[in-house]
Specification:
620 residues, 19 helices, alpha+beta, elongated, Beta-Lactamase, histidine kinase, membrane
């Protein structure tokens, strides 16, 4: 290097230094002094590897030796840790040594890193990403495009965007909409456009895509198209909308079985659940009764089973009250049928009404989306069943008001007739000329007995007034315990009862005890002295329906009055014991039982309550 060249090199903005063939510094410009943090006086004549031993582990030795040995220019990039700066080093050989230039390329490296990161992100995402230039030609395509559209880079890059729409099977009208969206982005009339359009997927199936168009800042491309397969979401939205339409059908019915049939078949058609059924709780018997099932369920199983308390997963989930997903029934305990061919199930309680179950022969057939959709279906079904219950209650109340009006008119007649007889007896006594010899006409029965009869009559009236034909929640009762409770508030002594057998049944506890109490009081009212009442079971040893009888030895109700004594609306005077047996019949019929009155084998009156399907004999 000559002295005349030094001023020019010194004015170069890049760092520059010169080395001789022994790699000794022969010159440094000011930028090199700043970079190396050493002055010329300190470095001229000294070997580079001795002064900067840290460079031995870098690309400098290999690069400089290659340039010197082969007499070829070399260049490489190196990161200066202390300065946190990237440099591009270029070494030019000569017979006397090396001329080395070092340029700060940190900004370029940062841009390259950013672009590489962006490219990696674009390549990693599942959405198809296609960039377009101003001529609508495709500049870049990411890897996901092939899985979304079914076209690879070689088919698209450099082609017009129409190639993309053709390969994706997009119809002409939608392709025009895509062209308009690209133009809007390109000329700046919109910052973002989005279109949901059908297209043909890689497997030739119909798909739904979300096409988003956004502007980009690139030296080649101006618009980016992001294509997302939203078929599943679109189908989910369609099904949810359809389920809400189904709700209108559900709410249009007031028949629980029809509601369940609509729900089951909607699940089969909309949710692709071919093996499904609905069970409703039987309030009387306390079990889950199948009321609706898909054709697939009946074909595979020949019908749906009944679930008693504690039987199988269906009952467990019904009691727990929350939807359950069973991915693999072969790994699940407490199956109702351990040999079931089903391998996965969703079981969803329908409020307190019952439960819906759908199954599959494949494990892991259902996912959380299926659970959400089934939950929506059963919630709509619950609302419809609630409405049906309210409508039924309203109809029952209307009918009951009409019946109650008739009963109250009959009660008024009974009260009127009963009080008239008492007043006539008093009037006849007052007309007797021999007042001194007059005896209160009711003395034989005592005033207390008369008041007791009046009180019982008032109780009967109150029972009818509070709607005797309605029953509350049924529960399992012991017949003998109910008898004991009834005796406590009745007019008979517990020693007057002869109970032949013990049993259990399901009934409204308060109403059933009232039935027994009223029957006991009816017998007591017809007895001139102590009364005995025999209670036994019927229908277990013959072909009749199950029930129980109460046979007393009080004054016999005439056979001609057996039917009329149960009817408070009878026109003639059959109110032999007030409303007693009419009230017994009303409470029995409210439980869907039947009540009859006949004569006992040895006299007296026999009252039978039958059609108690839940009556079971108990071993003593």
């Amino acid at each position: 290097m000559t002295t005349r060249s030094i001023p020019i090199v010194d004015r170069v903005t890049d760092a520059f230094f010169a080395l001789d063939t022994g790699f000794r510094f022969t010159y440094l410009n000011e930028r090199a002094e700043t970079l190396l943090k050493r002055s010329r006086e300190e470095l001229i004549g000294r070997v580079m590897w001795d002064e900067f031993p840290q460079t031995v582990e870098t690309q400098f030795p290999d690069g400089f030796h290659r340039a010197m040995d082969e007499q070829v220019p070399v260049s490489f990039e190196i990161y200066h840790t202390h300065l946190e700066t990237w440099f591009e080093a270029r070494a030019y050989p000569s017979e006397t040594g090396l001329s080395v230039y070092m340029r700060d390329v940190s900004e370029r490296k940062a841009q390259e890193t950013t672009l590489a990161q962006h490219a990696a992100v674009v390549e990693a995402i599942r959405d198809a990403v296609v960039t377009l230039d101003r001529n609508r030609e495709i500049v870049t395509v990411n890897g996901a495009t092939e899985s979304v559209i079914g076209a690879d880079r070689s088919q698209l890059v450099g082609e017009h965007v129409e190639t993309l729409t053709e390969l994706a099977g997009i119809d002409d009208d939608d392709a025009v909409e895509i062209g308009r969206a690209i133009t809007d982005i390109d000329i700046g009339t919109a910052e973002r456009r989005q279109l949901d359009l059908p297209y043909i997927g890689p497997d030739g199936d119909d798909r739904m895509g979300e096409f988003r168009f956004v502007p980009i800042e690139d030296h080649a491309a101006t618009v980016a198209a992001i294509i997302r397969d939203i078929t599943d979401q679109h189908e989910y939205d369609r099904v949810v909308t359809s389920l809400h339409e189904v709700t209108r059908w559900l709410l249009g019915s007031d028949d629980p079985e029809e509601i369940c049939a609509i729900a089951v078949h909607s699940g089969s058609d909309l949710l692709d659940l071919p093996i499904s059924g609905i069970w409703l709780l039987d309030q009387e018997h306390g079990y889950l009764e199948p009321v609706a099932g898909t054709a697939g369920a009946h074909d595979e199983f020949g019908g749906l089973p009944r679930f008693n308390p504690g039987e199988g997963l269906v009952w467990d989930v019904f009691e727990a009250g929350a939807v359950e997903l069973f991915d693999d029934l072969s790994e699940t305990d407490d199956l109702y049928n351990p040999e079931t061919p089903l391998r996965s199930e969703i079981i969803a309680p329908i409020g307190t009404h019952g439960v819906l179950m759908t199954g599959s022969f494949d494990p892991h057939r259902f996912d959380e989306t299926d659970v959400d959709l089934v939950s929506t279906l059963v919630e709509n079904t619950r609302a419809a069943l609630d409405r049906a219950d309210r409508e039924r209650v309203l109809r029952d109340r209307t009918a009951e008001l009409e019946r109650q009006t008739e009963r109250l008119e009959a009660v008024a007649d009974i009260l009127s007739n009963d009080l008239q007889r008492q007043l006539e007896a008093v009037a006849d006594a007052l007309e007797d000329d021999d007042i001194d010899e007059w005896e209160f006409p009711l003395a034989e029965n005592t005033v207390e007995t008369t008041l007791d009869r009046a009180e019982r009559l008032v109780d009967d009236v109150r029972e009818f007034a509070r709607n005797a034909t309605a029953v509350g929640t049924r529960s399992r009762l012991h017949l003998e315990s109910a008898i004991a409770d009834a005796v406590t508030d009745s007019q008979i002594d517990e020693n007057a009862l002869v109970v032949d057998a013990t049993a259990t049944l399901r009934a409204d506890p308060d109403r059933f005890v009232r039935l027994l109490e009223t029957a006991f009081d009816s017998a007591a009212a017809r007895a001139d002295d102590d009364v005995t009442i025999q209670i036994g079971l019927v229908g277990f040893d013959d072909d009749g329906t199950r029930g129980f009888f109460m046979c007393d030895d009080a004054a016999e109700i005439p056979p001609t009055a057996h039917d009329r004594v149960l009817d408070p609306t009878a026109d003639d005077d059959t109110a032999i014991d007030g409303l007693g047996l009419a009230l017994v019949r009303a409470i029995a019929e409210a439980h869907d039982w039947t009540c009859t009155v006949t004569s006992g084998e040895n006299g007296g009156t026999r009252v039978e309550i039958r059609d108690i399907t839940t009556l079971e004999r108990r071993l003593s």
